[in-house]
Amino acid sequence: MSGQELPRVRLHDDSLTRGPWTYARQVDPEGATPVDGALVEVLDASGRFVGHGLWNGSSDVAVRWLSRGRRSDLQRPREFLLRRLKAADDLRRRALRLPEVTDAYRVVHGEGDDLPGLVVDRLGTSLVVEHHALGFFRLRAELDWALGQLYPELGRVHRVPNQAAKLEAFPGELLEALDREPPAPAGFVEEHGLRFPVRPGQGHKTGFFCDQRDNRVRVGAAANGRLVYDLCCNSGGFSIHAARGGARGVRAVDLDEVALGLAQEAARANALAVEWTHADAFDWLRDHQDPSRRADLVILDPPKLATGKAGVEAALRKYLDLNTLALGAVRPGGFLYTFSCSGAVDLQGFLGTVFHAARRAERDVRLLETLGAGPDHPQRPDFARSRYLKGAWLAVD
Q: Which string of b and e fits 217-234 if b means at least 16 CB within 10 Å?
């Protein structure tokens, strides 16, 4: 790609808005329409060069910005990617020193690392490269080269989430070819001295919830001597930390049998006792509203309930119902850790729903701390969606 003249697109305005996305209503091709996923030069309305981006005329997000201001930035795309990836890698390894406590962390957090539409997680001996933008999939060879320079000892597996494939209009032949590739080997990751089985690139997200790492440590520290309920426990991260932290009992619930199997495997690997239940969290919580069945600490971490703005209202109703039931399962003087991973639901809306649930459940609560993803999931001030994970630690009276 080096030395080739790039296709161009022109903005409708000379005033550049900040943020990593430009929507289809704000830009048009300059001349021939670029291929979806193409690397393009971006011009302002007066025809002046202003930066580079990834184009997708089939998506509502027409341009994902890679750089602004220098025409030479993308002359050698793989070297540009290496620079961006190295900056992200330096943050995790040198500044945050994550490899000292875990071999499962986010290497690239999309817009938060100035690579909008790209997620890379390290899971033990594998890198899972998750494509939320068709443009990065078109740059797959350059990405593989750059990642190989930084992590020569790690294997790589690529995946495209179903929602991204739909929103970005991924060609079927690309997805079919991806499906034919061999999966990454299963194995274990370590986190603060605990071992968890992973299937990189399979199951929910990239195969492991790196974002909750610090919150799992918080729960483990608070669990000592307490009865703990872990709702929507997935592969058991909170439960395992709570059991290691000295909980007098841990009961974990999930409807996903595969996830529960991984959770049970984690308990065996760490020689910890957890009571696992295959059930719907709504139904299970309804059976634990009686004061005699309440717990000292409840964790509520449901899967994504809203995939976009259109689903926010319905998602908030579900959060209201779930949190009402969860609060009813907490003993007076206990704690509730409640979360939302729906990026379309903002923190204010989520907290308002949780407080509404407290009134509905007729419980007094105090907000002790607002919670989010770990620092390997950085957020840009001009892109609020980077804070997709939000939570609250509540004292319940």
A: bbbbebbeebbbbbbbbb
Strands 8-11 and 39-43, by their bridges, are: parallel
Compute the distance between CA of residue 373 and CA of residue 387 in angstroms, rounded to an integer. Answer: 8
Query: How far is residue 217's CA from residue 347's CA, in Å, rounded to a whole number?
Result: 22
Please, which residues bridge with residue 300 across strands?
A: 231, 338
CA distances in angstroms from 249 to 210, 358, 378, 394, listed in the order given: 25, 25, 34, 20
Contact 260, 282 (CB under 8 A): no
Residue 163 corresponds to which tokens in the numbers above? 């929602």
Tell me if 52 sits within 8 A of 67, measured CB to CB: yes
Structure tokens at 173: 């032949």
Question: pTM for the whole thing?
Answer: 0.93
| Cβ(237)–Cβ(259) below 8 Å | no
What CA dihedral angle connects 312, 315, 317 and 319, to 10 degrees? -130
Write out the catalytic residue numbers.
341
Using CA atoms, how far residue 381 sits from 22, 346, 376, in Å, is 16, 14, 16
Rounded Cα distance between 105 and 377, Å, is 9
**What is the Cα–Cα distance from 118 to 109, expressed in whole angstroms?**
7
Contact assessment for residue 63 and residue 83, using Cβ atoms and an 8 Å cutoff: no
- Residue given tokens 């998506």 in the structure block: 59
Please report, for residues 37, 53, 59, 71, the alpha-carbon distance to residue 50 in angstroms, rounded to integers and kept in the order given.
19, 10, 21, 8
Please name the residue that has the structure tokens 């003993």: 331
Q: What whole-number distance in Å separates Cα of residue 238 and Cα of residue 122?
A: 20
Q: What is the mean pLDDT of residues 343-351?
A: 93
Quickly count: other Cβ atoms within 10 Å of residue 362's Cβ. 9
Could you give the percent of the chain with pLDDT greater than 90? 92
> What digits encode the pLDDT tens for the residues 237-275?
999 999 999 999 999 999 999 999 999 999 999 999 999
Is the separation of the CB atoms in 88 and 115 below 8 Å? Answer: yes
Burial 248-273 (b: 16+ CB within 10 A, else e): ebbbbbbbbeebbebbbbbbeebebe
Contact 52, 12 (CB under 8 A): no
Which tokens belong to 183?
A: 């999966």
Query: Given 3-state DSSP classes, what are the helix, strand and coil percentages for the chain, each rounded to the nearest 5?
Result: 35, 30, 35
